[in-house]
Amino acid sequence: MGMETIGVGVIGLRMGRGHLVGYQQNPRTQIIGVCDPDEALLAQRKDEFGATVASTDYRDLLEIPEIGIVSVASPDYYHAEQAIAAMEAGKDVLCEKPLTLNMEEAKAIIAAVEATGRRFMIGQVCRFAPGFMLAKRLIDRGEIGKLYFVESEYAHSYKHARGIGDWRVDPRREPVIGGGCHAIDLLRWIAGDVAEAHAYANHECLKDWPVNDFSIGIFTFESGVLGKVMVSIGCIRPYTMRSVFYGTEGTIICDNTSSEIQMCSQKNLTGAPAFTTLPVNIANHNVSAEINELVDCILNDKPVATNVYEGAKTVATCMAVVESARTGKSVRPGDLL
Ligand SMILES: NC(=O)c1ccc[n+]([C@@H]2O[C@H](COP(=O)([O-])OP(=O)(O)OC[C@H]3O[C@@H](n4cnc5c(N)ncnc54)[C@H](O)[C@@H]3O)[C@@H](O)[C@H]2O)c1
Q1: Distance between CA atoms of 213 and 262, rounded to whole angstroms?
Q2: Are 53 and 33 in contact (CB under 8 A)?
Q3: Which terminal residue of the chain, N or C, has fewer Cβ atoms less than 10 Å from its own Cβ?
Q4: Distances (CA, A) of 20 to 55, 125, 196, 240, 280
Q5: Residue pair 182/153 in contact by the 8 Å Cβ criterion
Q6: How far from chain centre, in Å, is Cα 288?
Q7: Regarding beta strands 194-202 and 67-72, do their DSSP bridges make them parallel or antiparallel, or are they unpaired?
Q8: Of the residues 71, 96, 128, which should be mutated to test ligand 1's pocket, given the most ligand atoms within 8 Å of the CB?
Q9: What DSSP designation does 76 have?
């Protein structure tokens, strides 16, 4: 008897191409359906990945009983509608980040997960970046002692990344949520839930965009750790997500664009503090690892760690930064959930 395989459908075929590659590489999944309103792209991806069904309407994929997993990789505005419909049709879902751009839709996805009992993974892919994974392992095993301060910067020039049809250039798509969710989710993964945020923002670089292009937020975490996040989408520099984690016994510097992480640990020191470099692979869009994890959870009946609640808490923390910068007051993400 052959191994059980799970049929797959992918909605949105640009970022979704990374999903298709991941499913193609996983021996337990079979690509069945693809969906995108761009007919030329749809035909191209159908051929490239040997899909049997290609449609411009995602609902056509939901009617196929052989499809067990649906990837939602469409622009953010469609995540809630498509993910909820997929779960209601009995499919497990891998949804691209950010979960949603507002709390109403995040709550609607949570309700659908709870009502349908389907598995749901939010694609916070930085949790699968090798450098960040190594940093987390080192912190969890105490190499830098007790954390007291964490910081991450999401600096990514969007000048030429407006999205097909300029979908990213929209007042609903705050950069702190759309892209900054990577840095905020990383800090939450390392230091836990944020208790309170205070933030400032300005708009000096992308003058034709309807949103602030720079934000800085400071956090108190429930754990007592303090934190800082910076989000810039108008910066003139290559993409970085440089992150620094400070503990009582050491410090780690890492970036998903670097082939090494740096650690300075009291344990290894004989003289003045010095960094040791540890090599890592660069894989800042490691969707394949995400997919392998989801498939393992489905086949072996394990809970998904990057679940809908993690996605929603990250959106709430992003919202708290946006709200604080707008109102000048501190905001507690827990009040938004
Ligand atoms: N994990 C990451 O690091 C990462 C990186 C890039 C994008 N993303 C996310 O992936 C999603 C897609 O972003 P992208 O970079 O591919 O954008 P894109 O603009 O490059 O492509 C969007 C694609 O979606 C299609 N599309 C538009 N409306 C659709 C609909 N209603 N249903 C299905 N498809 C539709 C478009 O035709 C296009 O092919 C977004 O949610 C984005 O935030 C995540």
Answers
A1: 29
A2: yes
A3: N
A4: 15, 15, 38, 25, 25
A5: no
A6: 14
A7: unpaired
A8: 96
A9: G
Amino acid, single-letter form, for residue 88: E
Q: Which amino acid makes up residue 17?
A: R
User: Nearest 5°: phi and psi at 152?
Assistant: -145, 145
pLDDT for res 270: 85
CA–CA gap between residue 15 and residue 173 (Å, rounded): 17
Residue 138 contacts residue 246 (beta carbons within 8 Å): no
pLDDT at residue 269, rounded to an integer: 84
Task: Output the residue whose Cα is nearest ligand 1's atom 3.
Answer: 285
In the chain the domains, ranked by start, together with CATH numbers, are 6-125+287-307 (3.40.50.720), 127-283+315-336 (3.30.360.10)
Hey, what are 128's tokens?
A: 């699968």
Rounded (5°) CA angle 75-76-78: 80
Ligand 1 center to residue 287 CA distance, Å?
14
Q: CA-CA distance, 191 to 223, in Å (whole number)? A: 7
Residues in the chain: 337
Residue 1 is predicted with a pLDDT of: 44
Using 70 as the pLDDT threshold, list the residues of the chain that sit under it. Answer: 1-2
- DSSP result, 198-248: EEEEE-SS-TTSSS-SEEEEEEEETTS-EEEEEEESS-SS--B--EEEEET
Model-level pTM? Answer: 0.97
